[in-house]
């Protein structure tokens, strides 16, 4: 089992914690990680872009000039793609970009992402993130004590004070254990996880 240091909100190490190899020590599957990120980004796309095809554009029914004798290149319609006001070749039409991954593939990709953070020493465990009031400045001080800037902060429970305190800090996002995903884990430089959240993740995925 991998051992990591547990820090308090002042940035001081208070204890050592063992991480489950079945969650934080698996072999990283880069292909599945890539597919999971691709799926998440694809599923976000609206797919509502639209341009008119030749069958939909108005006008252009009459041949603009006769076939021969004018000195111009032959033209059949003023709505051909090369004309101003003409149609778009292979115009985009509304479509669904989403695709599915198997449940086991999603699970393996998430565990690979978590394990990669441990291997790269980009996982920081804190004993707790408890705030007496909603205060962005205090949350920023905690991140400064941990020497963290761009981070995904995973909380073990729905702590409204911590969530709202972090909301206005650029490059910081909070999440709960049931909403973490591969894209967010890789997007942020550091993964900050509370001790409670680590145990919750291990209970679900171990």
Automatic annotation (TrEMBL):
Part of the 50S ribosomal subunit. This is Large ribosomal subunit protein uL4. InterPro entries: Ribosomal_uL4, Ribosomal_uL4-like, Ribosomal_uL4_dom_sf. HAMAP family: Ribosomal_uL4_B. Residues 60-71 have a biased composition (Basic residues). Residues 43-85 are annotated as: Disordered. GO terms for molecular function: rRNA binding; structural constituent of ribosome. The lineage of its organism: Bacteria, Bacillati, Bacillota, Clostridia, Lachnospirales. Keywords: Ribonucleoprotein, Ribosomal protein, RNA-binding, rRNA-binding. It holds the Pfam family Ribosomal_L4. Forms part of the polypeptide exit tunnel. One of the primary rRNA binding proteins, this protein initially binds near the 5'-end of the 23S rRNA. It is important during the early stages of 50S assembly. It makes multiple contacts with different domains of the 23S rRNA in the assembled 50S subunit and ribosome. One of its GO terms (cellular component) is ribonucleoprotein complex. The keyword Amino-acid biosynthesis does not apply. The keyword DNA-binding does not apply.
